[in-house]
Amino acid sequence: MSSLSNLPPRRLGRAAAPLGWLGPAIALIGFAVLWPVYEMFRISFQHYSPDGFLLGSAGFRNYTKLFQDPNFGPIMLRSLLWVGAVVGLTMLVSLGVAQLFNQRFPGRRVARWALIAPWAASVMMTAIIFRWMLDPNTGALNLLLRDLGLLSKLGTSQADWLGRPDAAFAWMIAVAVFVSVPFSTYTILAGLQTVPAEVYEAAEIDGASPSRTYLAVTLPLLRPAILVATLINVMNVFNSFPIIWEMTRGGPGYETNTSTVYMFNLKQNFIGQSASMSVVNFAVIVAMVLVFLRVSNWKKEVA
Amino acid sequence: MAATSAPAPAAARTAAAAAARTGRPRARRNPPRPRTMIIAAAAYVVALIFLLPYVEMALTALRPPRELLDAGYLPRHYAWSNFSSLWSTGIGSNLRVSLTVAGGATALVLLVATPAAYYTARRRFRGRTAFLLLVLVTQMFQPTALVVGIFGQFNQLGMIDDPTALILVNAGFNMAFAIWILNAYFGAIPRELEEAALVDGCTRLGAMFRVIIPLALPGIVTALIFTFIAAWNEFIVALTLTSTPANEPLTVGLNNFIGAYSVDWQHLFAGSVIATIPVIVLFALIERKVVSGLTAGSVK
């Protein structure tokens, strides 16, 4: 304050000039992003009745209740499994799809466009389609599995996938992979464009086999693209809500809740505990942001 | 370039003709080789897998209600009337809310992000890095994690069921993408062009509107479409901040077709088709530029 007021008027004007340009953006971030962060912390220390009346301060009771909740441990483990499985499978599939779509073949552009659909469409609607296609009696996916004879091989004639927690969770992982692959594939395709053709020619001259070339040349050069796609996917998948919400609501019981879905389920009746769950999720996200900032060279990029 | 590294397939003839016209050397005309055909077939299968759920969505939207319980891949009759009867379910007001929220958020983002992106692209000043870091961090935060706080905030402000609340939240969380894309476009425009306009008697603002904005138009269109789609598809905040069906955007409103005992599948998917097709077409227009905006600040 004092250092600013000591400045001669012209220099003060210069120091304040960016505010005219950046001010609205900063104000919007403050209002829409930072205020909710503050609110979330505030609510997590308050005691609300199930129908939403404020009963006073709760101290740390919302947190202790959450940590003693028998669902909490399994839900955190399941969230870890969810993120690990979805992101791992997404990256594996995307590496393959990107490699395929990087080849030259007639109709490549149209084929790439098809990949856009799950990326552009609302995830909530995609989740509902899969719920419909998995309908035990009429779902197209079930018809397909039956016609291929897979249903009986899987040892079940009754295909109520979403009614059984393990099967439901596996299908939801598949749907999450389905909606994450397009972005990851496009990012890897962008990475493949940056690999100069000369390195492939050099590898060919050296007599490297295609698989050897891929492992020793392509993959290392794709490292930045793989890294950034992985990190963005981790963030998105951890925050993923509509897939589980639309397909099982986290049920049966709490057996397909992730921490994000659990936060929402708690919100209906236990907003204080929901806020403390939210703070835990937020801490995980902040940790991921810090990792992201460490491994990316954002400073060089914005300079 | 990769153009010469792989054998040219069926399009070789036209491509070779084009190459002849532009005078670029071109590989010999080859008939499609088996390898190319296998690759193409595999790629079409993959493409089909990613499209089929949306085809199923459209097919179900066209199923007559009495065929919904039939176990068959295709409907036996096509009920286009599902789309006309959809309007009597009150979906029109949901569509209007979606348009208001997505349109409002897009306008607000452009209004706020354009000056910020322009200034950070053109000037080096104290606090620039801090500002860009703030933008990068907000890009990584998603409203999902903060939804309890968002609810508390707008509950206090008395803005539950108010589309303005949805406009503000969507704009706040999607502004970062617009800033990155616009920053890249503004940064690529040579200063000399702007200075020339100033010498010719343009004001700073005049130069911005006559020189900078037209040149950055592809970036502006990308930011515009991306923000619109993101706000159009947003679900959890709308689910949290609305409480009456007429004030819900499509993503939430469509869920009202899912009842406790039965689901109005044909209308649910007719509404989904209406909500999805425009968005896929819009997205196809900006497809190539989206990756750079989403991964800004990290790869290079």
Automatic annotation (TrEMBL), chain A:
It comes from the Bacteria. The chain crosses the membrane at residues 12-38, 80-101, 113-134, 168-192, 213-232, 270-293. Gene3D superfamilies: MetI-like. Its main location: membrane. One of its GO terms (cellular component) is plasma membrane. It is a multi-pass membrane protein. InterPro entries: ABC_transporter_permease (IPR051393), MetI-like (IPR000515), MetI-like_sf (IPR035906). Residues 76-292 form the ABC transmembrane type-1 domain. PROSITE patterns: ABC_TM1. The keyword Cell membrane applies. This is Sugar ABC transporter permease. It comes from Actinocrinis puniceicyclus.
